[in-house]
């Protein structure tokens, strides 16, 4: 793990719903992209009244804060593009009312400082892939777009993207010839159709992979469908929760849980001998039983 300080090089409004911030700086010469299309980083933001964020110290696979340092607020974002020859990366931000990261992106100017860590990728399709299905709302669109760009020409791809309005659709570069559908749905404005659309698709024969990214609760039924109803192996799908509707309220309810309950939820993930998908099953079931 490494921690980097980066500065804004430029910004661009891609659509009414998406802002791109390009980060650069000398420290990014050491930033090593995984090459995985949905790789993500944690962005460390300056607190109110600060020009630069407080940054942690890298410790093995994580980081730690000195006792006298107030941890910087952080958020998770996809690396939309990585240009190692130029020491630059692009981060795309969904534009919406409120939210620490969105507000920062809208105010960002060349020279604005942000911190970030080494990237991690999640997309892990089988070798000799015949087909894939990519489904995402606006939060997952940067990752899905990069995955499309990296898809080999011979891989059949079906992509479904939910956006808040038709003006939020993007022109995407591809090396293959994907079947792309845009829907005005989800994104906290309208009910999501991700689960409905996925269930309407007949999964092709051959070696395939289903990648879905969106709102946390919307994706619970998607994961249940793929894992328990269709019976796909864990190597054949990836369901990634990118955001939570009314996330501040959800977090407040979580923080109101008693310490014993929170500790027991955290302890689920400490069992390294257990299958992660089985842990996820129990974790979701327990959250739902708690009204979360």
Task: Provide a short characterization of the protein structure.
With 292 residues, the protein is α/β, with parallel strands linked by helices. It has seven helices and 14 strands.
Can you characterise this structure?
- Helix 3 runs parallel beside helix 4 (216-229).
- The model has no long low-confidence stretch (mean pLDDT 95).
- The radius of gyration is 19 Å and the shape is globular.
- Helix content is 25%, strand content 29%.
- The protein folds into 3 domains: 3-117, Translation factors (Elongation Factor Tu (Ef-tu), domain 3); 131-243, Rossmann fold; 246-292, no CATH class.
- The chain has helices at residues 100-107, 141-150, 194-200, 216-229, 247-255, 259-268, 276-289; strands at 3-15, 18-24, 40-44, 57-59, 62-64, 74-78, 81-83, 88-94, 113-117, 131-136, 156-163, 179-184, 208-215, 237-243.
- The protein is α/β, with parallel strands linked by helices.
- A 7-stranded antiparallel β-sheet has the order 6-3-9-1-2-8-7. A 5-stranded parallel β-sheet has the order 12-11-10-13-14, with helices on both faces.
- It is built from 7 helices and 14 strands.
